[in-house]
Design goal:
Layout (H helix, E strand, L loop, with lengths): L1 H11 L3 H42 L2 H14 L4 H13 L3 H14 L4 H14 L3 H14 L4 H13 L3 H17 L5 H6 L11 E9 L2 E12 L2 E5 L5 H12 L3 E2 L3 E2 L18 E2 L9 H7 L1 E2 L8 E2 L5 E5 L5 H14 L3 H5 L4 E6 L6 E4 L8 E8 L11 E3 L23 H6 L8 E3 L6 E5 L13 E3 L7 E9 L16
Antiparallel strand pairs: 1-2, 2-3, 3-15, 4-9, 5-6, 7-8, 9-10, 10-17, 11-16, 12-15, 12-17, 13-14, 13-16
């Protein structure tokens, strides 16, 4: 504008015709500038929406390409940095993920989702717990009701040895989740569901090629309540070995934390503070006092031996960080017919190792107030000989709805645990047991077709008598994004 005024001043001394011509040329220039700006904004919108589209479809390379094109036009757009960071993390490109997520929180002061992503990266990948705690607390300062941030902070604090604070934040997460519980029944009714038809029914599913021929899996109905299937040779021998090798150096103690009561436990919540013992995430554990409270007597005649509710080690594997795991995840989509985004937004695969005689996991449900697990795929990674324990048992499978499993409420301090269920019939509850066979898998729905939690999905991992047992849990969740990112296309440009 200074230049414009100077030109006007000079031209005032000249004839008016020249002035009109010059001013006209300058105004045309400004008009073109406005039109170019509109084109730039429209191009940004198009690139950003294309990036969102391919991000949603799981085509990460294309999504990154369009996001970066949009970023050149709007380098200070926080959602772009958030989404690019999330994609880089999915691709295990951690430095780039940190770079873009950090830029997102620099641009936007209040961005709890980006802070949580940084906490996840620093806590789970880089093991830098001080930085992870910092970003978790920033997220909670901006949104005190952020369930996932409380849950993540509980894991971080446990890793730092601050068990009391860890338990506090898990309790907060649980209570918030219970208060804001989403009714998933309409979603369940819309999701694809395998037909069980009758016990013993088989169906064949082609899952790719093997030696130039179609590879076909046979899916056999084992129970109708819960809807439970058995699949032989779901995994190849090489795949089971690969999963064990990946997990071996990452194993740590499997833990449980106190969660909320479910109706199956049939107890007065006011009688004690705890509630059902619920597995949570990668690293949350009980304090020594809580562990002692969670112990109970085994079903042996001595009455002296004590053991814990859950006794094993586990490790978490990211399917997107390994091509073999990615292929297994694709196989899960093919067999279950669940949408790609539903499967990919679920939890990582949890490998569990029972390495000592007596190790087990007592009766429990997979789905909880915090972790809504619609479906479970359980892979058996090694053989456990018949008679050596280790079977997965469903004590309430195909029992009438009006029959109550009276032993469940004793699993936290009473005399009823997996050993009782596995060793002898219990008040007529024979249920169904599956013996581990290498490469096979069992698949079941934790929710009935009506959308309600299926109480028949109660199950236990029986104690091994000798040797070892390797399994892997592949839980398919409602609304648990694996890399918490991807802002919606709901911002004004």
């Amino acid at each position: 504008w200074i230049l414009f005024e100077s030109v006007l001043f000079i031209l005032c001394a000249m004839n008016s015709g020249v002035l009109l011509v010059v001013v006209g040329v300058m105004l045309v220039g400004f008009g073109n500038c406005g039109a170019n700006q509109e084109k730039k904004i429209q191009a940004f919108k198009n690139f950003y929406r294309l990036g969102l589209h391919f991000h949603e479809q799981g085509e990460r390379t294309k999504a990154l390409d369009y996001y970066h094109k949009a970023l050149k036009l709007q380098p200070e757009w926080p959602e772009l940095h958030m989404n690019i960071g999330a994609l880089h993390y999915e691709l295990m490109q951690v430095p780039k993920a940190v770079e873009h997520l950090t830029r997102a929180v620099e641009i936007r002061e209040l961005y709890p989702e980006a802070h949580l992503n940084l906490a996840i990266i620093f806590g789970e990948t880089k093991k830098e717990y001080e930085k992870a705690e910092y970003h978790c607390r920033k997220a909670l300062a901006q949104n005190g009701n952020y369930v996932k941030a409380h849950q993540m902070l509980a894991n971080i604090l446990q890793n730092k040895g601050e068990v009391e604070q860890s338990s506090l934040h898990f309790r907060i997460a649980h209570d918030l989740a219970a208060d804001t519980e989403v009714n998933h029944a309409p979603i369940v009714r819309e999701l694809p569901r395998l037909e069980g038809k009758y016990v013993g029914h088989t169906q064949q599913v082609v899952v790719g090629e093997e030696n130039g021929k179609p590879r076909t899996l046979v899916v056999t109905t084992v129970a109708l309540q819960p809807l439970l299937f058995h699949v032989e040779e779901f995994l190849t021998v090489e795949e089971t070995t690969h999963m064990i090798n990946l997990a071996t150096n990452e194993l740590h103690k499997s833990c449980t934390v106190y969660g909320g009561r479910t109706d199956a436990y049939q107890e007065n919540k006011s009688e004690r503070e705890g509630g059902e013992l619920t597995e949570i995430g990668e690293s949350a554990t009980l304090s020594e006092e809580q562990e002692n409270a969670a112990q109970h007597k085994t079903g042996d005649n001595s009455g002296a031996a004590e053991r814990k509710y859950r006794d094993s080690q586990n490790a978490w594997l990211n399917p997107k960080a390994d091509p073999i795991l990615t292929e297994i995840e694709q196989r899960v989509m093919t067999v279950t017919k669940l949408p790609k985004d539903f499967v990919e937004r679920s939890e990582h695969i949890q490998v569990v190792h029972y390495g000592k005689p007596g190790q087990h996991y007592d009766v429990h449900y997979d789905s909880t107030n915090v972790l809504k697990r619609y479906m479970t795929v359980l892979y058996y990674l090694n053989d456990v000989p018949l008679g050596e324990g280790g079977q997965t048992t469903f004590p309430m499978a195909d029992l009438p709805d009006n029959v109550k499993f009276e032993g469940v409420d004793k699993c936290e301090g009473g005399s009823t645990g997996s050993s009782d269920i596995c060793q002898q019939p219990m008040r007529g509850f024979t249920g169904i047991s599956v013996q581990p066979r290498r490469g096979s898998a069992i698949i079941w729905y934790n929710y009935a077709a009506t959308g309600e939690m299926d109480s028949h999905s109660l199950h236990a991992a029986c104690p091994i008598k000798q040797g070892e047992k390797w399994v892997a849990n592949h839980w398919l969740n409602f609304g648990v994004p694996r890399s918490k990112g991807k802002a919606e296309d709901n911002q004004q440009v």
